[in-house]
């Protein structure tokens, strides 16, 4: 259970009035699920570096996997603001839970829905939506992170199948995945997407251990050693870097919303604690230094909420540019990590304990500020959008 009453979750600028009844209902149902499923076990899972058992099927049950995927393929056909609100509530629980839903929705279901054949959509999307099948997304490689266009993983046309070789690193859910959407170069050096299935000979998914961040999420490698991939597993609808980048746009949009949830969890915990904890005869919340922190947290959360709401409107109208999404991802993740770090101080020594969420959120957000484009990379994208000059 959360340490603060859920009725204290901030809506300082009356943003709820801009949401539909359906948006609020969806948010409430995910909020309730996070309280009952995530909150009671998340500290234990993070401390013990294990995932939450049955998480993907639970996410499937509440409609958090592929919320905007059409109903005919098992999705919920919801709009982008609903997707954002779901991500916000999940990340109030933990970034690992939001990451699981983000990867499955935006990095696995999205490319299959956008670029897949009709057979691929019917074969994979319903099972991914229910969480019976777990997907991963392979773009990053040991030698190429911020610069995925230089990837080395490649495939050759062998007549009746493709032969895939290479390795991907830092892959969310790789040790658990049933399928991986893998981006690799064809013989002309052009990037294409392949659906690789667990069980294909030469395909392994070793786990990456000893993380200090996203400890309730499994991360690993995807290794391809002469993997024979059937020709029908090539995504036919896209060639070039725009394939993976369009997936990242969708995921980065979800992250912009998600991290508001982590910030809200830290903010609400700090407000509650500052009213209860007394030093020098008064609640610490009565001191100006602590009030300054709380006031700045709420200001930053409110700005981030407004940024996301308008970005969601643009996205619903198919008008959100990649640079606009970069700005929101960069701003909101920094906002959340700053609030996690500062709010921890309001709790003094108690702030380092697992009973309170700040250390876990702060550690998680170190990954979030790095993956899906680092903080620096998003700044370069904004700089390029302003000047027209590529500074990469
Ligand atoms: C927990 C976790 C989960 C992840 N999940 C996935 C996943 O599911 N699938 C996937 O494909 N990837 C995933 N990633 C990988 C992630 O996207 C990469 O880590 C990220 O893109 C950065 O790549 P890198 O780690 O190789 O850092 P690098 O690219 O080596 O960057 C190192 C530093 O150099 C800076 N830098 C790079 N280029 C420039 C430049 N031109 N100018 C100035 N500074 C620069 C960066 O900002 C960064 O600070 C995950 C990562 C983590 C940590």
Model description:
There is one protein chain. The protein is of the alpha+beta class and 392 residues long. The protein has 3 domains: 116 residues, Acyl-CoA dehydrogenase/oxidase, N-terminal domain (Butyryl-Coa Dehydrogenase, subunit A, domain 1, Orthogonal Bundle), CATH 1.10.540.10; 99 residues, Beta Barrel (Butyryl-CoA Dehydrogenase, subunit A, domain 2); 146 residues, Butyryl-CoA Dehydrogenase, subunit A, domain 3 (Up-down Bundle). 50% of the residues lie in helices and 13% in strands. The protein has 10 helices and 9 strands. The strands form 3 sheets. The protein has a 4-stranded antiparallel β-sheet with strand order 2-3-7-6, with helices on one face. It has a 3-stranded mixed β-sheet with strand order 1-4-5, with helices on one face. A hairpin with a 2-residue loop joins β8 and β9. α8 packs across α10. The longest helix is centred in the middle third of the chain and has 35 residues. It is globular. 49% of the residues are buried. The structure holds flavin-adenine dinucleotide (FAD). The site of flavin-adenine dinucleotide has 20 residues, from β1, β3 and α10.
Salient structural properties:
single chain; 392 residues; alpha+beta; Butyryl-Coa Dehydrogenase, subunit A, domain 1; Butyryl-CoA Dehydrogenase, subunit A, domain 2; Butyryl-CoA Dehydrogenase, subunit A, domain 3; 3 domains; four-stranded antiparallel sheet; three-stranded mixed sheet; 10 helices; binds flavin-adenine dinucleotide; AcylCoA_DH/oxidase_NM_dom_sf
């Amino acid at each position: 259970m959360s340490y603060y009453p859920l009725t204290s979750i901030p809506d300082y600028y009356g943003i709820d009035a801009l949401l539909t009844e359906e948006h609020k209902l969806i948010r409430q149902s995910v909020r309730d699920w996070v309280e009952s499923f995530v909150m009671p076990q998340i500290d234990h899972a993070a401390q013990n570096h294990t995932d939450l058992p049955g998480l993907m099927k639970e996410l499937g049950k509440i409609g958090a996997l592929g919320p905007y995927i059409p109903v005919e393929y098992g999705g919920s056909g919801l709009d982008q603001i609903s997707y954002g609100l779901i991500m916000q509530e999940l990340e109030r629980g933990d970034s690992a839970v939001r990451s699981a839903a983000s990867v499955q929705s935006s990095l696995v279901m999205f490319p299959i829905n956008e670029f897949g054949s009709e057979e691929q959509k019917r074969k994979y999307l319903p099972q991914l939506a229910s969480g019976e099948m777990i997907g991963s997304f392979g773009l990053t490689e040991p030698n190429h992170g911020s610069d995925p266009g230089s990837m080395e993983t490649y495939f050759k046309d062998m007549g009746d199948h493709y032969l895939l070789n290479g390795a991907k690193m830092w892959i969310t859910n790789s040790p658990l995945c049933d399928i991986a959407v893998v981006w690799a170069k064809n013989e002309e050096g052009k990037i294409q997407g392949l659906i690789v299935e667990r069980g294909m000979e030469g395909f392994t998914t070793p786990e990456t251990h000893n993380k200090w961040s996203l400890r309730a999420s499994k991360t690993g490698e995807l290794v391809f050693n002469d993997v024979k991939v059937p020709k029908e597993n090539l995504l036919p609808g896209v060639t070039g870097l725009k394939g993976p980048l369009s997936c990242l746009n969708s995921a980065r949009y979800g992250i912009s919303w998600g991290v508001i949830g982590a910030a809200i969890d830290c903010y609400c915990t700090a407000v509650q604690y500052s009213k209860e904890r007394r030093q020098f005869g008064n609640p610490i919340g009565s001191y100006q230094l602590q009030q300054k922190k709380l006031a700045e947290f709420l200001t930053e959360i409110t700005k981030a909420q407004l940024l996301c709401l308008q970005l969601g409107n643009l996205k619903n109208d198919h008008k959100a540019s990649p640079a606009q999404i970069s700005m929101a991802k960069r701003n909101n993740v920094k906002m959340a990590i700053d609030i996690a770090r500062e709010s921890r101080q309001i709790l003094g020594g108690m702030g380092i304990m697992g009973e309170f969420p700040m250390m876990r959120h702060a550690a998680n957000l170190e990954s979030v500020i790095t993956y899906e484009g680092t903080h620096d990379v998003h700044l370069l994208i904004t700089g390029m959008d302003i000047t027209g000059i590529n500074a990469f």
